[in-house]
Fold these 3 entries.
Entry 1:
Amino acid sequence: MGSESADSIWSIPAEIDAVSRLRTARFFFTQRPWLDLYGVRLKPVAPFGSVSSKPVVDPALIHRSLPDELLFEVFARMNPYTLGRAACVCRKWRYTIRNPVFWRSACLKAWQLSGAIANYKILESKYDCSWRKMWLSRPRVRTDGLYVSRNTYIRAGVAEWKVTNPVHLVCYFRYMRFFPNGKLLYKNSSQKLKDVARFMNFRATKDLVYRGHYTLSDDQVEAAILYPGLRRPTVLRIRLRLRGTTTGANNRMDLLSLVTSGVNDSEVVGHEENMLGVVEGWQDDETHNPDVPAVSHRRGLSPFVFVPFEEASGNISSKSSSRQDGLFRSWLRLGVPEFDHIANRHLPSNEMKTTTIYRLTGSFV
């Protein structure tokens, strides 16, 4: 009797385990009739230009009313940013947008400084003759928006009646707009992005918008800008590194160096619009005017963030200063490395007596 009772005791856990497994199996293998309805109405979408003789009936009204040829012409007039958004609409649009014609024109326009022959050689050697792969993998400067850098620094204020130790938080932005032909526009201002984006063009002559040229080599960007209207000509040399938060984004620029140097009057004549060729090969401490020493600036080197023109009005730089500080601190807590050195410059709340945002109107680096 003792042995039989012991065997029954040990068999109870095994039976419980078997029952639990059976319940689990019943849960996973439960018949769900609605799953059989998935994918019943989905039909293969014939790509544009397909030679298939089988008729494809598209149930979507927009696809029946808009022929493929007309849809192709509409997509051909879109910029790559809009093409990417249109590819998220439906499968047919996504397959149509994969046509290499769209990406070939985008690549030849983005890297037009390299020349068509050089671009075709790079396409064959590095990107397996895929224009779309080249567009996503090759570093490029985006021209459909502005690169914005937000910079802050602390400045002591003047003592007042109730405030004996005021502190001012000065905030300003660097704006850069690039063009496919190698030209760029540069502006320093405390104005918000939505106000600056309207006059960041070559017609803006009275808004302290400076013109320059740039070159792109792999992910390195070299730019030179001549400050006009000065008795002692001064050139601003900028070196940046391209990167992206996702593949093909190219939405970040790290500011590696920012140097101001003097140039001779003879070097300026005839090269006002293109100083990049004049300063090519210069060292960081090199200047050609003894009255204007070479200065390598260490402040205001925050990374540039790209903002498309379509999103300029709702970007963070268009918000109030207090809202910007809150968002930057939130990004710091989330571990966003681009904003570490920005948030570290803010004083703690118990040390900051007053906060004033100066509107900087002068020409500064």
Entry 2:
Amino acid sequence: MSSQHTDRLMSTHRHCPSTSATSSPPPAKRRCGEPSPQDNITHTQKAPKSHPRGRHGRRGKQKPETKALKLEKYVDSGGPHWASMVIDNLTKIYHHPHYPYECIGIKIDGALVREIIWVEYQTQVSWKTSQPFPPTPDKILVVPTPPSVLQADPQHPPYLMLCCVSVVPPGQALLLAAWDCVKSVSPKQYIKREQSHSATPAYHWGVWEKTQLTPYITSESSKQSVEAIAAIDKLLNLVGQRIVPKAIEMTQYYPPEQWKAQERAYNRVHAWLGDELAKRPALDFKGAFFTIAVKEGGMGDWEGGEFVAPQLGVRVPIVPGHLFSMMSRTVAHFTTPITSGQRVVFTCFTDKNLWAHTDLPTTIIG
């Protein structure tokens, strides 16, 4: 104990001037709270060094005019063209000859979906016979919607599946730690597990409409204890910092028309819930999506858990840092078993009713 106390004192006083070896008597001990003789010494503060260009050492926020000028130079120098070429070189486009229509319009029933897929795609149901895709981890996977479908329905999203690699900043440890904090306070679950979707329950946080005509914040977001809300918001703030910006960039680049619709939906949600979201900014995902379902089942390193789409005949390895998007209500899918590691699934989505009501007129009374 004495050794630890000594170390602590040395650390505390390491900036004090050393005492030279003289014959003068040691300084008298001071009582607690008694001023030190050095307290009366006036210290002269050194003037800050001038910046070589006459500016402060720390850069401030750039002016809008400066940003606009830099953007103009970037465009004039061909920056967007070269960036597009780099992305094109990294993109693998997989044109599937058929549209996966088999499960459209049917009742949400996992057993029925499995039966349909088994009858239509017996050779593809086994994940071992599906085509592994993409073959290298540095490729961007794009599965476009067939042109005939887009001609018949111009509002249909242009892609059935999209996987961007290495776009989310490393932060699995932070997300897992925040998730552990959420579990430690045991938030209430108000939504029953959907048998067709998962064998384990998930929390649903954010905004949706479900069967309503107006958006509202989910019960699992609002009807919680103070401790649970703090833990949930801590996790969602990490999602907002690390996932939301990349999801917006991906949507703006690949399906820009869909991003415009997302913006319209975002404006409508804010017309109804702007005040509530201002009080809980962690629930505001900036239009990238509106709801996030989180369950233990993938952040962190793991093995296995590949995404299989029998209708498309592909098997997509999902690894940390990838951003994966697909039409989950059109493309039947499942994942292979996890062989090792901890897996927490973050499913970010827009409720179908909220999407369908995007262009409804907003009339708020009161």
Entry 3:
Amino acid sequence: MENFLRSKEYWPIVESGIEEPAPNAILTDAQKTELEGRKLKDLKAKNYLFKAISRPILETILSKETSKDIWDSMKKKYQGSARVKRAQLQALRREFETLQMKDGESVTSYCARTMEVSNKMRFHGEKMEDVTIVEKILRSLTPKFDYVVCSIEESKDIDAFSLDELQSSLLVHEQKMNRSSTSEEQALKTSISTHFSSSRGRGRGRGRGRGYRGNGDGSRPLKANDDQFQGKGRGLNQHFDKSKVECFRCHKYGHYRSECYTRLPKDREKQSHFTEEKEVETLLMAVQANQESESDVWYVDTGCSNHMCGSKSLFSNLNEAFHSTVSFGDCSTVKVMGKGDINIITKNGFVETIFNVFYVPDLKSNLLSAGQLQEKDYVITIKKGACEIYDPSRGAIAVVQMSSNWLFPLKITTSQPCLNAEVKDHSWIWHLRYDHLNFGGLKTLQQKDMVIGLPQIVIPSQVCEECIIGKQHRSPFPQGKSWRAKTVLELVHSDICGPINPYSNGGKRYFITFIDDYTRKT
């Protein structure tokens, strides 16, 4: 902005302002013309400043009279006092000294970062010479530029070496490095391809399986579990070290591009998942072969997508209209015949609920999905042979020790509903739904079609006890006739409260109060 104002020849007005004449001074025509011209320039400078400043900041400077006042105000806001400048300069010095070129960063990018910091330091009053920046860049390059730095320091006069010359020299060496790296990659790729083709074109494997006669074209994909790897022939049994082989697709080491997992067909991906899930299922079957079905044992499963239970009697409520299927690793499926909630009793006697549990009649083991638990903000950690389920608000919920076959069985006590109450009279149901509205009013709503879907209301002969209790009233306690204490502890009122629900933090359900009648202190 300063350069723009200088180009318009308005900078002297912004920098020094307008000298107003004394109130009683008599000005000549030439002086008046000059003063008006300076004021006009000041107005134009103010206009340029207003256009360059954003609206929120503009609101804070609208009251300024001259362009100098606006400039000084902005300078004070964003440049700060001498103390603020000093603190900012210290931070910039620290940033400048700790600058280092990152791995993979280009020379242009690093030089731009260094110049950005040095320009900020110059703006805050630091005298930065080019030789200081050149030395900083040379000592903070990555190790691959060490020989370039030595060459420059030996052959060039650093004091007379400009930043542009340094950047140009580094760019030339960087381009040579990139070309050399590309050539090495192509040579490595050619060497690997040649070795791969020659090793596939010879021999027939001996051992388990029939082996495979290579044809040199690399048309048959390699599999780590092929029978040909089991033999003793000269073909693919020569284990080639792939630790230094780079994949030209994902740029990771240890495999070829043709073996990269990012381009595996979907059927091979499914086969890989199938193998892993089959192992988990085999472990689960080994448990069931040695023990009968236990309805109170739940297995914490990290591969299970939903909680699943095979015992219908454990559900506190069950929606049997819900139907789905669950697939296992061996491509078999079982039917889900419902979904509901199961109430469990914790060690402290509290009743908790496991929501959205699938009812699978053919399932002999109850599965607790780790994924669903994490969706409820529970934290699950597995370490040192134990699985801990942790609630951030209440602490540890359960600690499950790993069994001998690497499973985590959790024994849970379920809360069976002792009574399943159901109201079959629709008149009573709607009486309760309308907050104990009288049956005459309900019948009026039904007869005049004031409520859509309201069934036929029959006025029952029974009486609603809640309605009677709500209409009763108590007589007031007598005032002024009871005896009151005149000294402390002359009369103490006591009462027992309980049982209360929920429990207190200490697990208690009762408490007793003592209230002094005279002081009313408890």
